[in-house]
Design goal:
Helices cover 36% and strands 23% of the residues. The protein is of the alpha/beta class. It folds into two domains: 166 residues, Alpha/Beta hydrolase fold, catalytic domain (Rossmann fold); 59 residues, no CATH class. It has a seven-stranded mixed sheet with strand order 1-2-4-3-5-6-9, with helices on both faces. A two-stranded antiparallel ribbon has the order 7-8.
């Protein structure tokens, strides 16, 4: 009897592995999606597709700093949207989770483009961009620089605003300027790939390359949401909690 139970359990596990859609409760299919960006980076995401109540609209969902597609707000919002008839693709960006950061902010556009292209390939229209926390900076930059006509609107939750000014708000002008100045000096001396220990206050400490830090907060950064949002003509919904300490 014990052997039979183990065999049945093993069969079910294999079936789930071979057919991810049966993970979904009711009328929602869940699929692991693997994408490759135009600059050669491989990404992973979770696609949720409603089978019955479907309006053919899709939402590309972009996490914030050190986020991913399976925790925090991404653990429940994609499911809630799918229950309302929206297909969702929640993406792990190239700098997902709490790892040292070396990518440039500008490279976010390639990750988002890969997800948007995948949703378009599957026939979803209209399409919306959703960004949470620093993901709001990412999606605003994407739409500003690409002017993607497939995007019907943008949803932003918990936006941190200008990333350099956020750093000033947390640590003060002197500390923020010192960290950025050190990164700029390294970059000017051809050492942009050197690592710097960065204190992010409530988010903990991590390692950035000088290039990464300058791309986020430097004088020529393209991450400033206030400059980018002014160049976007699509409808934008912003949700921000008054008690959000970030």
């Amino acid at each position: 009897m014990r052997f039979i139970k183990i065999s049945v359990l093993a069969f079910l596990l294999i079936l789930i592995y071979l057919n991810p859609a049966i993970w979904a409760a009711g009328n929602v299919g869940i699929e692991m999606v693997r994408l490759q960006t135009s600059d050669g980076i491989k990404l992973t995401g979770i696609l949720r597709q409603p089978h019955l109540v479907r309006n053919n609209a899709g939402v590309v969902m972009i996490h914030g700093y050190s986020g991913n597609f399976y925790s925090g707000i991404m653990a429940f919002l994609p499911e809630a949207l799918t229950d309302c008839g929206f297909a969702t693709l929640a993406l792990n960006m190239r700098d997902h989770d709490q790892v040292p950061k070396k990518n440039l902010f500008e490279e976010n556009r390639y990750d988002i483009a890969a997800a948007v292209n995948e949703m378009a390939r599957r026939g979803y229209h209209p399409m919306y961009l959703y960004g949470h926390s620093m993901g709001t900076n990412r999606v605003l930059y994407y739409q500003k620089v690409t002017k993607d006509p497939r995007i019907a609107g943008i949803i932003l939750t918990g936006p941190p605003g200008n990333l350099y000014k956020w750093n000033i708000r947390i640590f003060g002008q002197e500390s923020a300027a010192r960290a950025l100045g050190h990164a700029l000096e390294l970059k000017e001396n051809g050492k942009g790939n050197e690592w710097i220990l960065i204190d992010l206050g409530p988010l903990g400490k991590t390692l950035y390359t000088a290039d990464h830090l300058v791309s986020l907060r430097g004088p020529e950064t393209v991450s400033d949401p206030f400059k980018n949002i002014a160049k976007i003509s699509k409808p934008i919904l912003i949700v921000h909690g008054l008690a959000d300490r970030l």
